[in-house]
Design goal:
This protein is α+β, with helices and mostly antiparallel strands. About 30% of the residues lie in helices and about 25% in strands. The chain is globular.
C-alpha cells in the first residue's frame, strides 16, 4: 500500500466532518473521503435551512464539544421554536464554508473529494484498507452504510413507509405571512384541494424566502410553483433559484452494532453508563404519502446514545456516526437529525482514536 492513515472517515456530511476533525485533533493521521466535489452532505446540499436536534425542549444545548462549536459558528440568529421543538436557522452556503474552513485548518487531516468508496479489504475482524489505502480504524458516516456494505457487515434499512424522501427547495419573493400554524394551513388548503402531494413550509434566513419540503416527485416542482403563483395570495411572484431538483433521503441503512438503540429507548428517555451523545428530538417518521407521524419524549427529558451503538458488532475497528449508527427504524427517525449527527460524529472520532491507542499497547 502506497499510503496509510490512522483513521479514515467516509462521508463529508455533519457526522463525517465532526468525526474527522475530532479524530485529527486527538493526534491521529486522518483521511476524510467523500464522493461529492465539496463537503457539506445533507446540511450543505439538500436545501434544508434548519438544523434540528441541537436543543432540549427549553432551547438549551444538549451536547457540548464539537456539536456546539459548529452550531455557534453557523448561527446568525437565535434558535427558533417550531411547534414543540427548537431549531437553528442557517444558510447552506455558510454550512459548507464553515465545514471547509475547519477541515482545512485542522492539522493531521487530509480531505479527498470526488472519491467514492470502491473497496474495503477485511482481514480477520479488521478493515485494513479502503480503496487500497491502509487504515487503522474507519468511521462510516456515509448515511447509507457504504463501508459496512463493502466489508460485508450486517445492516438494517429504512424504507418509504418510515423515512420517505422529500424534495427540498427555497422559494423566494413570498410576501404572505406564514408565522403561525393557522396561516400555513390556510396557504396550503388550495394546494391540497388541487391534488398536489403534501408539502410544508419552514423558515429561512433569507428575506421573503421560505424552505419548501415537498413529498412529490422532482418533476412536479415547477407545476407546484406555477400553481402557487396563480392561486395563492402572497405567492404571485415566487420563484426558486434552483434549476434541478432531487429527492433528499432522510435515512438509509444502519449498521448493526454492539447495541441496537430502539424506539422504546428513545421514548423512555433511556440513559446509558457508556453514553456519548444526547438527543431530545421526537421520533419523526414520514410515509410515502407525505404524512408525518411524530412521537415525543416526555416533557423535560432526553435520551442518550451509548458508545456501543457506534461500534460495529462484526468488525472491531469499524465505527458509525450520523444516520448509520446502530438503531432500529424508530430510533433512527429521531437520531438522524443533524444536531445529533454532529454529536455522534464527534463521539465516533474519539472512539476510533481510543481504539488505535488500545491496539498499539497490546
Amino acid at each position: 500500500m502506497s499510503q496509510s492513515f490512522d483513521i479514515a472517515v467516509v462521508g463529508g456530511g455533519a457526522a463525517g466532518i465532526a468525526a474527522a476533525i475530532t479524530a485529527a485533533r486527538a493526534g491521529c493521521a486522518t483521511l476524510l473521503m467523500d464522493r461529492r466535489a465539496a463537503v457539506g452532505g445533507t446540511g450543505g446540499f439538500s436545501g434544508l435551512t434548519t438544523l434540528c436536534g441541537l436543543f432540549d425542549d427549553e432551547g438549551k444545548f444538549l451536547n457540548d464539544g464539537f456539536a456546539r462549536e459548529f452550531a455557534e459558528a453557523l448561527a446568525e440568529s437565535a434558535p427558533r421554536r417550531m411547534g414543540k421543538v427548537w431549531v437553528l436557522p442557517y444558510r447552506p452556503e455558510a454550512f459548507r464554508a464553515i465545514a471547509a474552513g475547519l477541515l482545512a485548518s485542522t492539522p493531521n487531516l487530509q480531505t479527498r473529494l470526488n472519491t467514492p468508496l470502491m473497496s474495503a479489504l477485511v482481514k480477520g475482524e479488521r478493515i485494513i484498507s479502503l480503496n487500497g489505502i491502509g487504515v487503522g480504524a474507519v468511521v462510516d458516516c456515509s448515511g447509507s452504510a457504504e463501508v459496512a456494505r463493502a466489508a460485508g457487515t450486517e445492516c438494517l434499512a429504512t424504507n418509504e413507509t418510515t423515512q420517505a424522501p422529500a424534495v427540498v427547495f427555497p422559494l423566494c419573493h413570498v410576501t404572505r405571512a406564514l408565522d403561525t400554524p393557522a396561516a400555513v394551513a390556510q396557504a396550503l388548503l388550495p394546494v391540497a384541494r388541487a391534488g398536489f402531494p403534501k408539502l410544508n413550509f419552514q423558515p429561512s434566513l433569507e428575506p421573503d424566502t421560505i424552505t419548501v419540503k415537498f413529498s412529490g416527485q422532482a418533476d412536479q416542482v415547477m407545476d407546484l410553483i406555477a400553481f402557487l403563483r396563480k392561486e395563492v395570495d402572497g405567492f404571485e411572484n415566487c420563484r426558486t433559484p434552483l434549476t434541478e431538483f432531487t429527492a433528499a433521503q432522510r435515512a438509509g441503512r444502519m449498521v448493526i452494532g454492539q447495541y441496537l438503540l430502539s424506539g422504546a429507548d428513545v421514548l423512555a428517555a433511556r440513559k446509558f453508563p457508556d453514553a456519548v451523545a444526547r438527543c431530545a428530538w421526537p421520533i419523526e417518521q414520514w410515509g410515502a404519502d407525505g404524512v408525518a407521524r411524530f412521537r415525543y419524549l416526555p416533557p423535560g427529558t432526553h435520551y442518550e446514545i451509548p458508545a456501543r451503538s457506534l461500534r460495529a458488532a462484526q468488525v472491531e475497528n469499524l465505527f458509525m456516526a450520523g444516520k448509520t449508527i446502530s438503531a432500529d427504524v424508530e430510533a433512527i427517525a429521531s437520531a438522524r437529525v443533524m444536531g445529533c449527527c454532529l454529536a455522534t460524529g464527534a463521539a465516533a472520532g474519539v472512539l476510533a482514536a481510543r481504539c488505535l491507542e488500545t491496539s498499539r499497547t497490546r
